[in-house]
Design brief:
heterodimer, A: 349 residues, alpha/beta, Elastase, domain 1, Neutral Protease, domain 2, 2 domains, 5-stranded mixed beta sheet, two-stranded antiparallel sheet, 11 strands, globular, B: 88 residues, alpha+beta, 2 helices, 4 strands, 31% helix, binds zinc ion
């Protein structure tokens, strides 16, 4: 057993200043600055792992012959549009940050990530995963890691790490729903539906509507996500299970959105966005602190009515106390489910 | 020489582990050199990673070092790729 890896952002001095400012309640104006259109540049890493690679499509240029280039370009655009139109946010940093992405990173590389400055997409090995630019929710997920980095800056470890992951899933799904103009009933609430290779038994990598049901496959194993605190997984792997326990706050958001109805980016998304960017959330927030912050955000924006009550009820349904004064409930439901070492799927990618 | 690689994290959050025994392999010399370079140039502390980035744990004959995407050295990358591809 070893200490799980913590991730540390590479922050320059200016960024650190922004982060400190961002910790104050009113310091991140949603309408700061920046153009009302994205400034995108797509690079081709040409199967190397050196970033960014060769520039292949600039903002305003016509489609490339290479589809991943266009998928990345469109996904960055869909993400920019959601944040601007729904929340008045100008790009990832709220100040018009240019959006850069590299496609064809590595050889058969089974991943996509935000490196603190840009998006990186692998092609997938074709056996388990395929082209990571194929799901707009994956692109939205990764770019939202950038938004979190510039706002609440949730530590990528344990419960705050699972919240960081969840916020990315929430807005990844919301970005897809906005692009498709779907209502909460029409949405699939899946993450990564299009990046699973055709032979894999599963519908996606994660399900916000039904965590734990996204896949069940001889190679990948079974989707390990819990929907409630009863299934909370304590593990040292994956920064303390950040991609596992995110199922709990994911499901809380789904419950809020489903109960409020209509479009997820409207009231439910606004409450989560206010929570993320409002400045009141600590970077080491646990689930209960985040739940309380969403309740406060709902109350601040909408009063004590339907929205606030719906938020309280949703967190209660997943086993996390959200009442502002809430000290009556234990911080975590017990017993905690221990992840057996042998339960990890043996092979991937 | 036994070389094991455990990869955690990633967008999918799925762990992958593989181990390779260099005994009798025609490329044992090359692998030993790579492993030596990785052990010398890496440390056992917590690596600086990125959200959704892969984190790797490389164990060579019981000694473990850690590293993370996208900041791998050439030797780390080569060793990780070969062990995950050819190991069991
Ligand atoms: Zn993520």
């Amino acid at each position: 057993m070893h200490l799980p890896a913590r991730y540390t952002l590479e922050l320059d001095a200016a960024h650190r200043t922004r982060r400190r400012i961002g910790a104050l309640p009113t310091a991140v104006p949603d309408t700061a600055t920046g153009p009302d259109h994205p400034v995108r540049t797509i690079y081709d890493a040409r199967h190397q792992q050196t970033l960014p690679g060769e520039k292949v499509r600039a903002e305003g240029a016509g489609p490339a012959k290479d589809q991943p280039v266009n998928h990345a370009y469109d996904g960055l655009g869909a993400t920019f549009t959601l944040y601007l139109r729904a929340y008045g946010r100008h790009s990832i940093d709220g100040r018009g940050l240019p959006l850069n992405a590299s496609v064809h990173y590595g050889q058969g590389y089974n991943n996509a990530f935000w490196d603190g400055k840009q998006m990186v997409f692998g092609d997938g090995d074709g056996r388990i995963f395929q082209d990571f630019t194929g799901s707009v929710d994956v692109i939205g997920h990764e770019l939202t890691h950038g938004v979190t980095q510039y706002t609440a800056n949730l530590e990528y470890f344990g419960q705050s790490g699972a919240l960081n992951e969840s916020v990315s899933d929430v807005f990844g799904s919301v970005i897809k729903q906005y692009a498709l103009r779907q209502t909460v009933d029409q949405a699939d609430w899946l993450i990564g539906a299009d990046v699973l290779a055709p032979g894999i038994h599963g519908t996606a990598l994660r399900s916000m509507k039904a965590p734990g049901t996204a896949y069940d496959d001889p190679t990948l194993g079974k989707d390990p996500q819990p929907a409630t605190m009863d299934g909370y997984v304590s593990t040292s792997q994956d920064n303390g299970g950040v991609h596992i326990n995110s199922g709990i706050p994911n499901h809380a958001f789904y419950l809020v959105a489903a109960a409020l109805g209509g479009h997820s980016w409207e009231r439910a998304g606004q409450i989560w966005y206010d929570t993320l960017t409002g400045g009141a959330l600590a970077s080491d927030a646990d689930f209960a602190a985040f739940a309380r912050a969403t309740a406060t955000a709902a109350q601040t924006r909408y009063g004590d009515g339907e929205e606030y009550q719906t938020v309280l009820k949703a967190w209660s349904q997943v086993g996390v106390p959200a009442a502002p004064t809430g000290t009556a409930l234990p911080r975590q439901a017990s017993p905690q489910q221990q992840a057996p070492e042998g339960a990890q799927p043996p092979s991937q990618g | 020489m036994r070389i094991a690689v455990t990869r955690t994290g990633g967008f999918a959050g799925i762990t992958r582990r593989a181990e390779l025994d260099t005994t009798g392999r025609p490329d044992a010399g090359r692998l030993h050199a790579l492993a030596h370079e990785v052990l010398t140039a890496s440390d056992s502390g917590t690596p600086v990673g990125v959200p959704d980035g892969f984190v790797y744990e490389i164990t060579v004959d019981g000694r473990t070092v850690r590293c993370a995407d996208p900041h791998l050295s050439g030797a780390q990358r080569k060793l990780i790729q070969q062990v995950l591809k050819e190991g069991a």
